[in-house]
UniProtKB/TrEMBL annotation:
The keyword Ribosomal protein applies. GO terms for biological process: translation. The keyword 4Fe-4S does not apply. This is 60S ribosomal protein L34A. The gene is RPL34A. It comes from the Eukaryota. Coiled coil: none annotated. One of its GO terms (molecular function) is structural constituent of ribosome. GO terms for cellular component: ribonucleoprotein complex; ribosome. It comes from Malassezia brasiliensis. Keywords: Ribonucleoprotein, Ribosomal protein.
Amino acid sequence: MAQRLTLRTRNPYNTKSNRRRVIKTPSGKLRYLHLTKLPTAPKCGDCHVALPGVKAMRPRAYATLSKREKTVQRAYGGSRCANCVRTRVIRSFLVEESKIVKNVIKAQQAKQH
């Protein structure tokens, strides 16, 4: 007959936060090993791709990490991926260029009239 197992915490329900696995201890007994939730990597705010260079951890675990492990050395480091930053820079540059062109055209038309 299989050995009976008792829960080692006070939570008796089969929830996502109460996952467990049966392990055998060095003394040969079976016991529940409570598992933690799996971490997910932080995602880019624009395209929702996992950010490369940033560790995947549970939210509270980021408090113990150093700054270089939480971000990337770039503008929008731990928030946006490199491709989205590139498109943002190009877009802002083109917007500024279009404003300059618009002002130049307006000045030429004013000169003609």
